[in-house]
Sequence to fold (194 residues):
Amino acid sequence: RPIVVAHSIGAGPVSEAILRRPDLVAGYVVVAGAVALGSHQAPRGVPVYLRAGWLREGIAAATTSNPWLTGPFLRGFLHVKDAATPEVIAVLQEPMQRPGYTRAVAAWLPQLFVTPQDARSTRMEAWQALNVPSALIWGDKDTVTPPVQGRALEALIPGAVYRELEGVGHIPQIEAPEAFREILLEELARIAVR
Fold:
């Protein structure tokens, strides 16, 4: 069984899978996870401007799949702005060249705004019942998913370990790769021996 590592918005669906089938994993590491804890209590729908497919595609083409904006968008997620190197930006731009990329992003955009009503990951009791060795890694300067969210998960998950990187924002693997790697390997080793 794998130890699963999930970052940011990827932690939402991964958490959902693990909370439904914890028997399939040996452990879980959440990195600056966007899990929308408690959001089912005040659900949101799709904004009007994202309801029409043609408009959504135009918005995606002008923003998220626009290579000219990759650097500025990335820097918006980082506390360490210099980590948005040309090499990192080039890697993030590679998928944009695939046919259908903009259409796929446009189809996905509404999911950022809609509250999943039946999601276990939004409910505290689901996290409290999680019996999987877990670690939470956060940057102390994260403004996208602030550290208070990681601390909230730590308080809910039995035996969870919370680790914080100083001077780091939302993407620690880019902003402080060596420090992040060291913490990640320590947590993977700790989980593996349980």
Notes: The mean pLDDT is 93. The radius of gyration is 18 Å. DSSP finds nine helices and four strands in the chain.
